Amino acid sequence: GRNGAWLAGQGHDVLTVDLSGVGVARARALASKLGVRVDALVADLKEWTPPAGAFDAVVLTYLHMAPAMRTDVHRRMAAALRPGGLLLLEAFHPRQLGRGSGGPKEAELLYTLEDLRADFSTALDEESGDELEVMLDEGPGHQGMAAVTRYTGRAR
Q: What is the mean pLDDT of residues 63-92?
């Protein structure tokens, strides 16, 4: 919800999707507090398929899934982009294991740039990709140096 509210504050129309009704309620509350409009949907990404070509952009932030689910969800999210649409993703890298700054504790749930390139290769042209160290300051549980993977791709 935090990212969706920020994007709405930048003038974007936003649909935020969360598995948790609590998460959706928090997104709506934050948007209201900031005076912006965010549409929010409770949905399981294992089952929810957005309309093909419906969005100018898809932003996936720290959405960690097992490999079989990840590939399927990533491909459906890419298919939701209009031609020329942009997909932006940031997630924890396997080097994050053992750090106290957040992220899953199972290696299979962490993403390398090669994982993302394989997931999106059939639908997106990569604009940028990186594996890097960043300083997180995102509230309790997400503080300190972290290893992340970033990917940006444009729909064909």
A: 97
